Request: fold
Amino acid sequence: VVVGSGIAGPIIAKNVAKAGYSVLLIDKKPAIGSPKQCAEGISVKVFKEYGIPYDRRFINREIYGAKLYSPSGYELELRYKEVSGVILERKVFDKMLAYYAAKAGADVLARTEAQDVIRKDGRIAGIRAKHEDELVEIYADIIVAADGVESTIARKAGINTYAPPHEFDSSYEYEMLIEGFDPDLIHLWFGNEVAPRGYVWVFPKDEDRANVGIGIASDHPQTAKYYLDKWLREKGIPTRKILEVNVGVVPVGGFVRELAKGNVVVVGDAARQVNPMHGGGMAEAMEAGTIASKWIVKALEEDNISLLQNYTREWWETDGKRLERILKVRRVTEKLTDEDLDLFIRVLRGADAEKIASGNYFEVIKALIKNPKVMMSPRRIKLLKELL
Ligand SMILES: Cc1cc2nc3c(=O)[nH]c(=O)nc-3n(C[C@H](O)[C@H](O)[C@H](O)COP(=O)(O)OP(=O)(O)OC[C@H]3O[C@@H](n4cnc5c(N)ncnc54)[C@H](O)[C@@H]3O)c2cc1C
Reply:
């Protein structure tokens, strides 16, 4: 049984069903995918990598790069010739992922909320759930907790998912009409007065419609809404055409160490498998879901639950390692002053934009080291050393 039909859940349900095993995918939402809690941006690479059809029904807009804005207004444009990402329609995307799982043979039940695990003979035998208004017991050999940031089922199964508040971002987002921003790029604003530890984003869904949101450290005394409304006011952007309001929490660290315990597997936001720099977690959920499904299928084939431990090992050796490196960068960048951020964007304007856009942090460090202003500051040199 797979609890949660966001991104990770349906990918696992599809892969396990395809291998010929019986799977039930459940979600508490009456309509899978709705409401969304997402800015909906994702790299175009994931479609090929995870065998997801490039279907116009859930692709709102193709994106060619990003524009970054420093606190004092310096700009850095990273533009590709080709499409680099897309802004999805998650309400359709999530539902289609569940549809692909159902077509592969999985059973899918919306409006079914897992409430607890069933313990029998010292092991977890299934889950208790509320389906419509009825309490049901679902027995299963393997239980997958793909239930998002709240991570109820993993916790109930005794997996330690605790992370301190500092390892989460609070976010607030309007889907609204907005003009004056190049709709072929995503736009990101940085600054300690703009978004403490985070950024404001404009992710275009149309020429004049976008997800306009903010993420800030969740232990900050002010709310994310306060900073987003302040930014909109200061930019003189009218807020009379708001189509949706989304509130959410994003894990930006605190990756769960033990990803499988007995016959329970935790994946995606529930396991904090999110990029700690930008808070994007869809691609990470797809990757973890793919690794987890491989070992679920092997465990079922060989009738050996202990093989699930290989999911923990493989994830930590691959994507876990990458995300830990990014977490280290996040811990350094959160110490940057507005002056640092200004300098950072200015220096990077002369660097290889293509390499930086593809996440080459070495290129960033190279550009910084070349700049005398960076080298003259012992504090900045100390921060750079923390990165190396
Ligand atoms: C405001 C905001 C903006 C974001 N923007 C981006 C972005 O632009 N790009 C990006 O890559 N990532 C973004 N993210 C992160 C991204 O949304 C998540 O990382 C991603 O959805 C994780 O997928 P998942 O499958 O782990 O969990 P989810 O997509 O959260 O799915 C979990 C599912 O479990 C269900 N569920 C929960 N509890 C139960 C239960 N007890 N019983 C049954 N069902 C249950 C929920 O209804 C949900 O459908 C954003 C997040 C937020 C909050």
Remarks:
- Residues 335-387 form one domain.
- The chain has three domains: 2-40+89-162+254-317, 165-251, 335-387.
